[in-house]
Amino acid sequence: MLIIGLIFGIVVCYVVPIGGLVMCMRKKKGTGKAFLIGAAAFVISQLVIRIPILQLVLPQYAWFTVLQLNPWAYGIFLGLSAGIFEEAARWIGIRFFLKEKREVEHGLAFGFGHGGIEAMILVGLNYVAVLVMVIGGQGALVPVEPGGLFMAAVERLYAIGFHVGATLLVLYGIRSGKTIWYLMGAILLHTVMDAAIVILPAEFGVGTFGVWVYGGAIGVLTLAMGLWCFAKSGRDKKVIEGG
Description:
By secondary structure, the chain is mainly α. The chain has eight helices and no strands.
């Protein structure tokens, strides 16, 4: 079961986003570029800017130490900062680097790139490393449960879905001339999703499984909203052309 869990995790972290990219590339030109820009948006906004600020800069300030003592304030701070940095990067990537490539397929590819690179770097590399250890006969040294591996992979799956949905919302906002509203909506959804990681366990005693279920619900909701916007746009266009 351990190997199956590891393989499942690797499939989710690598095969799903790459498979999504291939699907998009078969339907529309320019989706490869969108995928790379989406990946860059995550790397720059999170790994280069936000996380170093959280880990190296803010701990030097007393107010940040006090903030960490309040689960509500700390959770909202982390969620809101993630939302602002990532959704702003999403908007910049689409607005300035995908000027002629703003079809739904480009949004999907961008989302797969953003969520995919996050899964590959933050989770996928660990799955690969553990699998190598297991194959090399060092499985006894791996302190993980197969069930945890499966659930962590599922968490990455709905996280990718969230990033795809959020990208579609931001993209639709740009296309429809309502950028600020859809960008704010994406930031709000991001905040609500990430803040719960701190708030639910500390304030309500929710376990890891419950947090995953909550995150899965938000991820599915965001993806559904993004797809619905473009489906609605398509229906409206047909009505206008038909009229």
